[in-house]
Amino acid sequence: GLNPDEGRIINGHTPVKEINGEDPIKADGKMLVIDGGFSKAYQSTTGIAGYTLLYNSFGMQLVAHQQFNAKEKILSEGIDELSIKRVVDKELQRKKIRDTNKGKELQAQIDILKMLMHDRYLD
């Protein structure tokens, strides 16, 4: 099963109306609604151009993308489109391989190999 301290529900296909102050991070960070209007048809309703969910060894982040207006505007005014990152994890303690289930399996195999090497070469 899932660890209740780390488990999350990730929901899509439900537009988040950031334009009205709605937050895509719900239930104290346990539920994420990541469909914020990537489709142009929803952007006037949501006020943004969607989300990207990032997850790596540093934790989970949600990036909100602003609407892309026109390449001409970027080229003429030098204004880059803006993306805003939100930290989902409260404490970003980097997760290492040894902290995962697979890491524990690998460590057990390493321990067995060390024991076999010790028995073979040191006895």
Overview of this structure, please?
The protein has 123 residues and is an alpha+beta fold. It folds into two domains: 1-92, no CATH class; 93-123. The chain contains three helices and six strands, in the order E-E-E-H-E-E-H-E-H. The chain has helices spanning 40-46, 71-77, 101-121; strands at 9-11, 25-26, 31-33, 51-56, 59-65, 83-87. A three-stranded mixed β-sheet has the order 1-3-2, with no helix packed on it. A three-stranded antiparallel β-sheet has the order 4-5-6, with no helix packed on it. Strand 2 (25-26) and strand 3 (31-33) form a beta hairpin. The protein starts with 8 loop residues before the first strand and ends with a helix. The mean pLDDT is 81.
Helix share bin: 25-40%
Show unreliable segments: none
Sequence of strands across the biggest β-sheet: 1-3-2
Shape: elongated
Overall mean pLDDT stands at 81
Based on secondary structure, the structural category is alpha+beta
Order of helices and strands: EEEHEEHEH
Query: What distance lies between the first and last C-alpha atoms, to the nearest angstrom?
Result: 43 Å
Number of helices: 3
Number of strands: 6
Characterize the largest beta sheet: strand count, sense, and whether it forms a barrel: 3 strands, mixed
Total domain units = 2
Characteristic key phrases:
123 residues, alpha+beta, 2 domains, 3 helices, 28% helix
